[in-house]
Here is the input.
Amino acid sequence: MLDIKELTKEVHTNAERQEFVKTLMSGFINPKHYAIFLYNQLICYSTVERYAIDNGLFKDTEGLQRAEHIHYDVKTLWPSDNPPLITQSTADYCKHVDSIKEDPQKLYCHIYARHLGDLSGGQMIKRKTPGPNRYYQFKDGQVKEWKNIVRERINGYLNVYQHTIVPETKLVFEYATRLFAEMKEIEPYLDSLIRVLEGKGGSGSTMPEENKAPSNVGQVMTSEYIEKNPLEQ
Here is the structure.
């Protein structure tokens, strides 16, 4: 029987080796930096889960959805009414997910790569990162049970739709790698960026040129695929 873990091992390992993952696991990440990361995760998860629910993909794992919990964490760490930064990879990811919204097999690749990760490595991340971390909290017994269900289902799809499942799962990890790279890229000018995003830069203030994000890093949240600021919900 084919195993999705083995078939996507290289791209998965590459994502885990990104420098920002080391920052996450250091125990010293700036809470606002973590909030920016979580905000992008919130947008990604909200998009995936909306379509996954429409396709009945959580019927065996009701409660595995994470968007509501990520929202709580972001609100705690980022009380400002002004939303954090949305990166280019997040905008691109949402457009891609929108394009597969009626393809349950492809959508389940995203549940495998994201939600199974929350049940696995996420349990270590929650001990190292600030805030309530409801993102990674599950009830007793759920972790092992849901990991088994997700693995069994994705491998079931894999044995029928291998030509679809493998590249789609790899794509999810590639998007994760891009987001990790973007989060690392903003570190050198993080303090100035946070002041601007929170609207605390002062009237007419601008970010020093050396602290500005490269144009391809991201933008304040504007996307036709994101209907409203999730923090207002």
Q: What stands out?
A: Residues 73 and 132 are 6 Å apart (CA to CA). Residues 31-54 form the longest helix (24 residues). The chain has eleven helices and two strands.
